[in-house]
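Lab meeting minutes (informal)
Scribe: AK
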Amino acid sequence: MSESIIALDIGSKTIGLAYSSGVIASSIDTIRFEEYDFNQGLKQLEPYLKNMIQVLLLLVIQKIWIIQLENVLKW
């Protein structure tokens, strides 16, 4: 199974979001905010994080099922 990577590049006025399947990174979006106003940046980042958390939870649940299935098959 290939793993996907989401990267955050946090600067003083922007947060860059990128996605990679391990070979080439592709830009998702650039969030802009007033210099050092990280609260504003986080508010704009929130929808992305919610989506990422949902995907992460699904992947964790899937991994748990695979481990349980492997344990059952060993038994």
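Next up, CB showed the second protein from the same session:
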Amino acid sequence: MIHRRMSRAALAAGVAALAFAPVPVQAQSAQNLGTMVISANRTETEANKVGSSVTVITAEEIEKRQAATLEDVLEDVPGLYVYSNGNAQNNTRFKLRGFDSGRVLVLVDGVKIDNQASQMYDRPYNHLQAADIERVEVLRGNQSSLYGSDAIGGVISITTKSGRNSSKILEGVATAEVGSFVTRRGSVSAWGRYGDVYYKAAGAGLATHGDDNRPMVDPDEADGSRSVNYDFKVGVDALKDVGILDLLNVEATYNTMRGDAEYDSATSGMAGNPATADTEGFLHQETDTARIQVNAKMFDGRLDNTFSASRMDAYVVARSDRYSGSANRYWGDLEKYEYQGILRPFDGHSLVFGADQERDHFRTKASSSQNAALVNSSVFGDYAVDVTDNLTLSAGLRRYSHDTFGETTTYRTTASYRVPETGTRLHGSYGTGFKAPTLVQALYNRETAVANGFDETLNPEESRGYDVGVEQSLLGDRLVTDVTFFNNRMTDAIESRGPSGNRYYVNIGSVRNMGFETSADFDVTDEVRLSGTYTYTQSRDNATGLQIDQTPVHQGAMRVAYAPKAVEGFDTWMRMRAAGKSFDTPSTKIGRKEVGGYATFDLGADYEIDKSFSVYGRVENLLDKTYGQMYGFENAGFGAYTGVRAKF
């Protein structure tokens, strides 16, 4: 304990000295009118022409936030609630407008980061580090017509760094960081271009002893974790200006994530559970993804054709004290083949169309061995048109052919209307969604549902919903605000029931997610910038009238950034995150429990010594607030971190 206190004091002093040293970074303008969005229509679209609600986070913003993991990157996004049981890199989940992680599609370089094996415990993106991320787009609302069954609640699209637009043979960045809880983090990313060939190679590692997240059960027992990421990308512009062909590009990517994490039982030591001590569970995850694509641009940019093939492999090993250290093992693989065309017949018109097929395979070696696969095929199209200089409309649909549930159709429409005279933009979307039961859900039901008096057959989830919002620019675009109302109803929602080890799934009826999200960015002066978000979410089971677990009604964040002109290369920031009370149901024995609200404060600073070298530091949970986001668990207390960044 003495060593921990000394480390805390030393690190806090170092960060405080850096934060208040007389040393800026130019405050960014409140609105970047040149921002392009890709995920909203599956093609580059000007942000002010997008009808759906989308948030774009750039590499520069990720660097300024000193984000270590994807969780850190997403924490301030409106409508998105990120929560965990307090274990670093383990059991982090999120709710997007009330939809949980399993109903939101996560893509890394176009590859779906989820399959049946990874669904058994925690999603593999728990171990995805932020060092190599170039851009994140969070697309909210029904997106099944654009992206398929898994996008019933939205899409999180992650793009890693690339050398495609580089003008150098070699450039890159390296970081090293240490901090509280014996945390070590390091990364190296290198990319470049030589003639028509470009590449990227990157590696990142993060390890921590973690904090004690179950003090009520086993004081001073921390749960640590470690993860390693490797990313490779290579491409070539094979042909240029040959007949009707403008450009033929071939690109291949490979990403791998390895993670180990200690974890605690969600119920040990709680009332209604006979266990009196903390369990010592261990989780090992391996995730590999690969993708190759061929892109042919034709007819002076009027037609783009992209053919791609991708694969994700996941391997999960879980050991729990409950089973005397025995291991449950899960394997999963997901193959996808896709064609996408983008036709631009006239200026202001674009048609995205294509077809894809997915094959999902899953097998286990746990309490019983199981092996199953399914195939899902679909065709899709989305048409966008600038009706006038200030009005953009889009409409799209997708037709599915599912192994089990046959054929169905989803659709989406969007609108964006701009009033330049007042700096006002109206935007909105309406769409439907479809999500079939996963193999995991079906396999669990074959074993346990009938024994508990339920039919083993599950119906697919279906949804329909809309959002409508107003974006307003004021003070010469120094202040930009947005208020968006959303309303979505999901029928035949699939939820788990029963104790751990005897889990089964049922269709609970309908769930309504409705509320509003607000955001504001304000360049107060050339040195001071304020930004904030607030989300109000009513997520209710219509049968019981109860708020869905882990969905606070109120949540928000505020950030103040200060970049004094008097000291070039220095900037500092403070952030507050807050959430109201929520609920959690650890088990049927324990029942439904209230989880208290919280507010935490973080402080950070960054000093660019020269164009190639920076030092930085931050304090997380500045006031050492004791709080939790899941019942019976506590999130990390006060932590201080410092690091260096070198660009070459």
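CB comment: The helical segments are 2-20, 59-65, 70-74, 144-147, 439-448.
No objections, moving on.
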